Amino acid sequence: MSPEQFIDHALERYERPLVSYARTITGDLESARDAVQETFLRLSRQDLAALEPRLAPWLFFVCRNCALDHRRKVVRFADGLVEDDVPDSRPSPADEAQLSEDAAQLRTLIQRLPLQQQELVKLKFEAGLSYREMAEAMRMTVSNVGVQLHTAIQTLRRHWNRANTPILP
Amino acid sequence: MNDSRLTAYALGELDAPERENFEKDLAASAELQAELKDIVALAEQIPGALASDASLTDAQRDSLRTRFAENHCTAAAQKTTRRLMAGAGIGALAAGLVAAALVVTRPTEPTAPSLAQAPATASSQPVDEASHAKVAQLLADAKKFSDQGSYNLAGKRYEQTLALDSSNVAAREGLAAVDRARSASQATTYNETRSTLVAEVSQGMELPVRHFSEGSGSLAAAQPAQPKSESVAAPPGAVTATSTRTGGAIGGVQSDKVDSLRAALATGYAGETRNLAKDIDLPPGESYAETAGNSFLATQDQPLSTFSIDVDTASYANIRRFLTNGSLPPAAAVRVEELVNYFPYTDPLPDGDAPFSVNVEVAKAPWNQDHLLARVALKGRDLAPDKLPPSNLVFLVDVSGSMQPENKLPLLKRSLLALVDKLSPQDRVAIVTYAGNSGVALDSTEGREKSRIRSAIEKLHSGGSTNGASGIQLAYEIAREHFRKDGNNRIILCTDGDFNVGVTSHDELTRLIERERKSGVFLSVLGFGTGNLKDATMENLADKGNGNYAYIDTPAEGRKVLVDQMRANLFTIAKDVKIQVEFNPATVAGYRLVGYENRLLAKEDFNNDKKDAGEIGAGHSVTAFYEIVPAGQPLPNSVDPLKYQATENRESRIENTSRDLFTVKLRYKAPDGDRSQLITKEVGPAGVALDKASEDFRFGAAVAAFGMKLRGDANDASLPWSGIQSLARSALGEDPDAYRAEFLTLVQKAKQLAPDVGE
C-alpha cells in the first residue's frame, strides 16, 4: 500500500472517531481538529507498514496526547478554571438535528461521566477498539479498562432506566 | 451486581476460558441474565447517541495527503533497508518457529522514534546467547499457545519476547496475528450472543399466552408463533417495532404464518399425535417423530423388557433451545432417555477387562409412593488420553445457504476449532463440504498440521443448495482411503437437517450408512440451528451408523460434545449394547420403561447378533429407569384378569421361590467384534427410601420426571415443577461443569411457561 493509499484508508476509517474523541478532551471542535491534524502529521513520519497492525491504538494514543496538550494551553489561558470531567462539548446543530430524544438524553448522560470513562465509551462504541487496543491507547491495564467501562455502563444504565421508564408502552 | 465480566461479555471481550466460566455462571443466575440483557440493550443505543459528523476541514485533509505523498520516497527507501538488515538477522530463527507465511520482517518501535532511526543498532540479534535461547523458547511457547487458542498466554509470551528483543519481528507479527485471531473468534460468540439477547429483548414484549387443558394432567400451552427463530441480530429499535399481541389473538400478517405452521405441523408428523400438546406451533421446517410413552405392562403377560441403549443427548440441547427461547418444546422433541443421559454420573468404572460396569439401584418412586423406581446404569471404561487409538475423522459439512445463521456454520466452525486443539499428531482429519456440489475442503491431514486444519475450517462458508448423497460418498471414500485398522474411523455429519436433495432417497442413504458401518467406518451426526431441523432423520442416521447424535445450540455445548466428552462421543468401547430385563412375577405386578420408546426391541432380538443396537463410548454413562409396581398393587392401566392363562402361571409361580425383583442381562460386542458377550446381574428385593438413594439416582429421577411432564404422558402421576426442582436441588453433587445447575434453570423456565395449577 502506498502512503497515499494508506492515508486515505486511515482518514476514512479514523478521521471522525478521532475528531470526536479529541473533542471529548479538548471540549471544542477547532482544537480537536488541530489535535487530529497533528496526529496524522506524526503518522506520516512513521514506518507505516510496521505500524499497521497496531494503527488504531497508536492513533488514539498520539491523538490523546495532542488533545491533552491543547487542553493544557486552554487551561493556562483560562487560569485553571476548566474542570476535569466537564469539558464543554456541545454538539453541533447538525448533530443535534439527527438525534432522537432518547439518543440526546443518552448523549447527555455520557457527557456527565468522568473524562476517563467518556474516553473509553468513545473508543469502544465509536472507534470500535478492543479492550486491548484501548488499554494501549490509554496506557491502562486491560483489566482496568474492563472495570472502568463496566462502571460507565452501569452508571448510564441506572440513569437511562430511570429516564426511560415512563416512555415504554 | 458489579461484575465487569458482564460488560466484557456483552462486548465480546472475554477470552475463551473466561467466557466459558462466565457462561456457566450466567446459566445459573437469572439475575445475571437479566442484567446482561439490559446491558446489551443499552449498548445498542450508545453508538446512535454518539453519532457525530465532526471531521477535519477539507483544507486539513488535503494538506495531510500532500504530506504523505512527499514522504513516499524516503519512507520506501528506509523500509527496504530495514527489511534487509532484519531479514538477515533472524529470518532463520523466525522461519523455524513461526509459520513461514508470517515471516515478513519489519522491526520498529513506532512510538519510539529513536529506535526507528537506528535500525542497525536495534539489531535483530538478541544481545547474547542466553537471551537468544530464551527468545527462541518464548516464541515456541507463544506459537503453541496460539495454536491452542490461548491467545492471552500467547500474547504474553510475545510481549516478553519484545521486552528482551524489542525489534523481534516474529514476536511483533505473532502479536498482531494473535490479536486478529482473537477478535475473529470473539466476533462469532459476540454476534451470536448478541443476536440471541436482542431476540430475547424483543421477545419480552410478547409473553406467551398460557392455558391449561382442564382435567388431564397434561400440558397444553398456546404460544405465539415464532417467526424469530432464525434470529439474526435484530436492528436497534426492534423492541418497539415488534407487533404487540393481546390474549391469543395474533394480528394481521402473523396469521398467515400460523397457517403455514399448522400445515407444516400436519405434514411433518408421522404416526399418531396423541401426546402432542395440540396448540404448540413448531418452527417452520422442523420435524419430529412422534412416539407414545411406554405404558405399564403386566409381568404375567410380558416378563421381558428388551431395548437398545441410546447415548444420544440431542434432545436435551434441543429442548433447552425451546425453553430458552420462551416456548415449551413439542412433546415429540422430548426423548426422556436423552435428557437423563445428558448428564455425567459418578457410577464406578468397570473392573478388569469389562468394557462397562452395571449398576442397579432401587428406591421409592418420587412421583408415586406405592411404586418403586429402578435405575440401571452402565458406565463405560475410560481411556487415558495417551491410550486413545488414532482417529481418522472426516467431517461432512453442510454448507448450504440455510447454514448461514450465526448458530449454524459459524458455531460449527468454532466447535471444530476447539476440537483441533485436542488432536494428537497421529490423528487425521479431512473436511468434505456439500451443497450444490460437494467438494473436499481439506484432504485427510495429520493432526500435527494444526494450522492447516484450522485455516481450512476458517475458510468454510455457506452457499448453494444441499445434496447430501454425493458428499457422503466422497466422505466415505476418504475415510476408507486412510482407514486405521487399530483406530477410530468416523464420518461426522454436521448439518441443520437438509440433505434430501439429489440422487438418494432416505432408504438408499440408510442402506449406504449401514453398509459402510460394516466396513468399520462409523457415522455420527451433529445437528445445528433451528427452523430446519429434521430431528428424527438425524437420530436415525446416527443410529444406523453406529454413532451418536448430538445437537449443538451454544458454544458451550459445542465444547461439551467435541472437546470435554470427545472420548465418549468418538471412541466406541462396545457396540450393539442391548439390555433385557426379566421381571419376577412373584414380586413385581407390572413395570414401565421410562423413555427409550424408539429403542425397544423384540425379546428375540436380544440374542440375535445380527440385530443392530446402541454403542457406548469411552467413559460414557447410560442410564435407564424402570417404574415398578410391586406385587399386590393394582396396575394403573390394567386389563381384566386372563381367563385361560391363569393355570399355567400358577404352576410357574409354585416353582419360583425367588424374592428377586428382576434380572438384568446385557449383550455387547467389542467395537470390531461380531459375536456378543453376555453379562447378567440379579437384583434383590431391597428398595430404599428416596432420601437414602444416591445423588445420581435422585438427580436422574428428577430429570426423568421433568421429561415425562414435558411430554405430558398420560401414564404419569407427575410431580409438580417445584417437586422436580427440590428433588434435583437435593442432588446437585459436585457438578464440576454446572450442567445440573443449568437443569434447574430449565425447570424454572418450564414452570413459568406452564405453571402448575395453584402455583
How many β-strands of chain A, per DSSP? 0
What overall form of chain A do the CA principal axes indicate?
globular
What is the straight-line distance between the termini of chain B?
29 Å
Strand elements of chain B, count:
16
State the major sheet of chain A. none
What percent of residues of chain A adopt helix (DSSP H or I)? over 70%
Specify the biggest β-sheet of chain B: 6 strands, mixed
SS class of chain B: alpha+beta
Count of discrete alpha- or pi-helical segments spanning 4 or more residues of chain B: 23
Q: Beta-strand level of the residues of chain B, as a percent range?
A: 15-25%
Oligomer: heterodimer
Biggest interface, CB < 8 A: A-B, 64 and 57 residues
Average pLDDT reading of chain B: 73
Strand order in space, largest sheet of chain B: 7-6-5-8-9-10
Q: Given the structure, what is the number of helices of chain A?
A: 9
Approximate helicity band of chain B:
40-55%
Provide a descriptive summary of the structure in words.
- The complex is a heterodimer of chains A (169) and B (759).
- Chain A is mainly α and 169 residues long.
- Helix content of chain A is 75%, strand content 0%.
- The longest helix of chain A has 24 residues, at 3-26.
- Chain B has a 6-stranded mixed β-sheet, with helices on both faces. A 5-stranded antiparallel β-sheet of chain B has the order 1-12-14-4-3.
- In chain B, helix 6 packs parallel to helix 8 and helix 21 packs parallel to helix 23 (739-753).
- The longest helix of chain B has 40 residues, at 58-97.
- Chain B is globular and about 110 Å long.
- The chains are: A mainly alpha (169), B alpha+beta (759).
- At the A-B interface, helix 1, helix 2, helix 3, helix 5 and helix 6 of A face helix 1, helix 3, helix 4 and helix 8 of B.
